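Propose amino acids for all 438 sites.
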């Protein structure tokens, strides 16, 4: 209780207790306080982007290259099937069904009022009204689509004309966002046709995926694959040219001219040979797939086509498979997730899917905070002292039997320890709660 009082005074009063009071009330905190008093109020380090006056518009050359990269990523996404499938898969896996909880009141009337407010906001918040209540689902889908493709999400909230509630969230193209470093904070600007537009810091949302310490822009999951993608597309082009040059499988019908009769003139012989040739050609044209040609022994049918076709096809397949696997590794997925069947066993696929689920949960944390920011602001505008908490439902359908069996074994172990006197009832309840959380 004394520690709680100390931090409460620290927050409310904005100053530390005196050293005498601290030594009297908090003897164990002396080392912490002695180091705390020496903490600076502003960073002593300098940003590599900062100039002498510590005030510079970002980006310079590096971030203008990023604008080009974002356009390149979008081009690859829209034209390369494997990359399009990767972005589509990540987006749909992350846009899991979601729910929410309201905290701060047990009054059912207040909770019902808040639920109605949230429901109305979810229907109108998406920027495109012609979607006819595309709603929060469409908002989340575009959130993740931009995050995985561009490496960032940006947009701004606007109020309705009466300014008594939130109206819509408008997405902003991340490639147009610039940063102004002012001492320790970044200010957001949008560059349109050479004009810098300062964005409202309170209504603008920006989140960069895996930003560097000196670069808040974020990185696309496609950042490591353009070079490999170029090789993969070049391989497909070369394969097409090679197969076209080798030709296609065909039948070569060789017809031996008939023998000339002793009393036959040249004109009669040529006419008879031409009719025999035309009759054979007509027969080959009319022959069906299930029919067989019946001729004299003066007709020879040979097969022509590329030699060693199977070996060449296998070589192309193996080379292309290797490049597809490189692309999949670059977007943190596996071939079977994108529809490529390379014979992965079920156990291996299950392990990889579990890893993907863990990645999704970490990525959804940003969307969770994004949703809570929007809805808590709407509740505050409506005068409701409640807290909105967003949750994604990532439950999977496979592996339920193994999961239930593991839960059963864990509960049986807790009961055995309780019956053996190794833990008391309260400790058993805590362990059960930890098991349920897992």
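Proposal:
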């Amino acid at each position: 209780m004394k520690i709680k009082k100390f931090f409460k005074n620290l927050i409310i009063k904005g100053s530390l207790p005196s050293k005498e009071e601290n030594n009297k009330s908090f003897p164990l905190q002396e080392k912490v306080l002695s180091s705390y008093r020496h903490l600076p109020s502003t960073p002593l380090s300098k940003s590599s982007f900062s100039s002498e006056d510590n005030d510079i518009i970002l980006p310079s050359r590096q971030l203008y290259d990023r604008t080009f990269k974002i356009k390149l990523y979008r081009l690859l996404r829209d034209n390369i099937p494997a990359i399009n499938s990767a972005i589509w898969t990540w987006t749909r896996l992350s846009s899991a069904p979601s729910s929410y909880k309201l905290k701060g009141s047990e009054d059912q009337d207040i909770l019902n009022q808040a639920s109605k407010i949230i429901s109305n906001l979810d229907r109108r918040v998406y920027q495109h009204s012609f979607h006819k209540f595309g709603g929060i689902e469409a908002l989340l889908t575009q959130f993740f689509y931009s995050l995985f493709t561009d490496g960032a999400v940006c947009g701004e909230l606007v109020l309705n004309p009466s300014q008594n509630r939130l109206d819509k969230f408008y997405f902003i193209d991340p490639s147009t966002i610039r940063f102004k470093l002012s001492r320790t904070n970044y200010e957001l600007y949008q560059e349109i046709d050479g004009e810098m537009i300062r964005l409202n810091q309170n209504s603008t949302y920006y989140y960069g995926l895996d930003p560097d310490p000196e670069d808040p822009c974020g990185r696309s999951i496609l950042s490591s694959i353009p070079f490999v993608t170029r090789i993969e597309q070049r391989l497909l082009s070369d394969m097409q040219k090679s197969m076209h040059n080798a030709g296609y499988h065909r039948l070569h019908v060789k017809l031996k001219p008939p023998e000339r009769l002793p009393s036959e003139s040249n004109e009669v012989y040529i006419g008879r040979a031409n009719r025999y040739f035309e009759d054979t050609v007509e027969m080959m044209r009319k022959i069906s797939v299930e029919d067989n040609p019946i001729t004299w022994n003066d007709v020879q049918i040979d097969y022509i086509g590329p030699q060693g076709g199977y070996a060449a096809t296998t070589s192309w397949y193996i080379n292309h498979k290797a490049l597809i696997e490189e692309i999949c590794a670059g977007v943190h997925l596996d071939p079977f997730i994108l529809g490529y069947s390379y014979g992965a066993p079920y156990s291996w696929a299950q392990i990889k899917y579990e890893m993907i689920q863990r990645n999704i949960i970490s990525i959804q944390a940003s969307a969770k905070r994004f949703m809570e920011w929007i809805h808590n602001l709407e509740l505050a505008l409506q005068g409701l002292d409640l807290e909105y908490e967003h949750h994604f439902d990532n439950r999977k359908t496979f592996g339920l039997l193994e999961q239930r069996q593991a839960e059963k074994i864990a509960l049986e172990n807790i009961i055995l320890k309780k019956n053996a006197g190794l833990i008391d009832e309260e400790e058993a309840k805590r362990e059960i709660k930890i098991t349920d959380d897992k």
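Residues 1-26, 51-56 have pLDDT under 50 and may be disordered. The radius of gyration is 35 Å.
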